[in-house]
Amino acid sequence: MIQLVIGSQWGDEGKGKIVDMMARNADLVVRFHGGNNAGHTVVVNGKKFAFHLIPSGILQKKPIVVIANGVVIDPDILMEEMAIFEKMGMNLKKKLVISPRCHLIMPYHKELDAAYENARGKNKLGTTKRGIGPVYADKVSYNGVRIYELLNWPLFVEKFKFQAEIKNKILVAFGVSPIKVENYLPIYKKLAEKIKPMVRDTFAIFQKAIKQEKYILLEGAHAVMLDNNFGLYPFVTASNVIEGGVNIGSGIPSKKIDEIWGVVKAYTSRVGGGPLPTELFDKIADDIREKGYEYGTTTGRPRRIGWLDLSAVKFACLLSSINRIAITKIDILSGLSQIKVCVNYKLNGKKIEFSQCGYLELSKLTPVYKSFPGWSEDISKIKSFKKLPINCQKYVKFIEKYLGVKVKIVSVSPEREASIFV
Ligand code: IMP
Question: Which of 20, 199, 250, 356 could form a disulfide with 42 if both were Cys (CB 3.0 to 4.6 A apart)?
Answer without folding.
Answer: 20
